[in-house]
């Protein structure tokens, strides 16, 4: 049963990072990776929410800050 659950966690990159975020709440690196996966999937609003959560406790995390900038840029009307 545990193996089946774990396999479901690994079916997509989003699912992997969502499961990891559930097991490690508030971890900047995990939230950044989840946000990056959302960016790759075109889920801009979801990426922004998660990346904002990653940046708040660690505004010096350059990758998270850059990913947040990209999420916001992709949502803005041109």
Low-confidence stretches: none
Range of helix content:
over 70%
* Number of distinct beta strands: 0
Question: Radius of gyration in whole Å, from Cα?
Answer: 13 Å
* End-to-end CA span: 48 Å
Basic shape: flat
Secondary-structure element sequence? HHHHH
What would the average pLDDT be, to the nearest integer?
89
Q: Helical region count? A: 5
Beta-strand share of residues: under 5%
Structural class: mainly alpha
Largest sheet: none
Question: What does this entry look like structurally?
Answer:
- The structure is a single chain.
- By secondary structure, the protein is mainly alpha-helical.
- 74% of the residues lie in helices and 0% in strands.
- The chain has five helices and no strands.
- The chain has helices spanning 2-9, 13-23, 28-40, 44-55, 62-75.
- α4 packs antiparallel against α5 (62-75).
- The radius of gyration is 13 Å and the shape is flat.
Protein traits:
78 residues; mainly alpha; 0% strand
Outline:
The chain is mainly α. 74% of the residues lie in helices and 0% in strands. The mean pLDDT is 89.
Helices and strands in order:
Layout (H helix, E strand, L loop, with lengths): L1 H8 L3 H11 L4 H13 L3 H12 L6 H14 L3
